[in-house]
Design goal:
There is one protein chain. The chain is of the alpha/beta class. It has one domain: TIM Barrel, CATH 3.20.20.70. It is built from 12 helices and 10 strands. The strands form 2 sheets. The chain has an 8-stranded parallel β-barrel with strand order 1-2-3-6-7-8-9-10, surrounded by 6 helices. Strands 4-5 form a two-stranded antiparallel ribbon. Helix 9 packs parallel to helix 11 and helix 11 runs antiparallel to helix 12. The protein is globular, with a radius of gyration of 17 Å.
């Protein structure tokens, strides 16, 4: 691995683990509760996450370039919640723009099993070809659009392996209750957990993240379950402890409760 690639990955994954904060939701669903002012949303959370996942528009408009956390730049899009098919994505950002913004990595969705499987996998291949020349890691996001029932191990394992085979340096995928360890073991590059739909309780979030880390994930890319929580700082602090300090589920819950109580 060349120096630039290794340096960027070390920024994103200190000690080989990571907590990414995604605020890219507006690229397909427009205004999102909690992200009306993204720069203000992330301000109290800055001590807890390792990198920010966002689009170039929000990066320029809302994120202070001085002393910024490492950036994972969302570079696929061109679809929306009101359109015919979320899977019909295209690349939105040139390699020149990626380099100009000095980002640590880029992220792109692939929709395996959809009508646009080939197109999104071609997007990934094209992006890898471009970014490898500049030592920029590509994170493939195994998206499922509106079909959340696809979040089972056999499908997720297929998606992760294909993304890695096409050159993704990191893969972001969903946690699944059964056989998540097999998803991780079948992928030759680091696997990061996605947050998915907002969970009903904080305990539910902590539980699936703890389970996924125990089963081999290197971290998480989780937004709504943090910044839409009634207690976002407490949630972020507890999640960071699971990822970086390998605390037990009970310890994480205690951290959440103590922070929530202002202790």
């Amino acid at each position: 691995m060349d120096w630039g690639m290794q340096n960027r990955l070390s920024q994103l994954m200190p000690g080989g683990k990571c907590f990414f904060m995604p605020i890219d939701h507006g690229y397909f669903q427009g205004p999102t509760r909690g992200l009306e002012k993204p720069g203000e949303t992330i301000q109290p959370l800055l001590p807890y996450f390792d990198a920010l996942f966002c689009t170039r528009g929000v990066l320029r408009a809302a994120i202070d370039p001085v002393g910024s956390k490492p950036i994972v730049l969302r570079v696929s899009g061109c679809t929306s919640m009101v359109g015919k098919d979320l899977a019909n994505e295209a690349l939105t950002t040139s390699i020149e723009e990626i380099v100009r913004l000095n980002v640590a990595a880029v992220g792109i969705s692939v929709f395996i099993g959809s009508d646009y499987e080939k197109e999104t996998l071609k997007n990934l291949s094209t992006l890898v070809n471009q970014c490898e020349d500049y030592g920029i890691p590509v994170m493939a996001v195994t998206a499922v659009g509106k079909e959340m029932e696809k979040r089972e191990a056999r499908y997720l394992g297929l998606c992760c392996r294909i993304a890695a085979e096409l050159g993704a340096r990191v893969v972001k995928t969903y946690w699944c209750e059964k056989d998540f360890d097999k998803v991780v073991q079948g992928c030759p590059v680091p696997v990061i957990m996605a947050g998915g739909p907002k969970c009903e309780t904080e305990a539910e979030v902590l539980a699936f993240v703890h389970d996924g880390m125990q089963k081999g994930a290197v971290g998480l890319n989780l937004g709504r379950n943090v910044w839409q929580s009634p207690h976002p700082v407490a949630m972020a602090k507890a999640l960071r402890a699971i990822v970086h300090d390998n605390v037990s589920l009970k310890q994480a819950q205690d951290i959440f409760n103590a922070t929530k109580a202002g202790k």
